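>> received
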Amino acid sequence: MTVDPAVLAAVASPRRREILRLTWDAECQAGQIHRAMPDVTFGAVSLQLRALVEAGLLDVRSDGRCRYYRARPRVLGALAPMLEQMWGDALWRLRLQAELEESRRGPRPSSRRPVPRTRRKGQTP
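>> returned
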């Protein structure tokens, strides 16, 4: 099995694999893909889309101002069934979440919950 190095480099990224999963069976707008990845900016998603298009793994179609993306499984050759099998595996999904969190840039969301204020004696609600 020989796979183009550009294809291997493209699927090495967990975010790009997630974009492939989202576009595998249906065409998606760039905005839909971004909403599925709320922890990254639209610009970051755009860069990942561009890398997948340049590797030949995504088809892109323009309709007015909208761009629609769809995966090209044939380009992946023997890797396509392996990716499909991974996407159905619960352990893989857990690993993906960990990889996405690890590769996240910028400030982490706060896990602290606001402390409720207590009333002082004599105060009315």
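>> The chain has one domain: 5-102.
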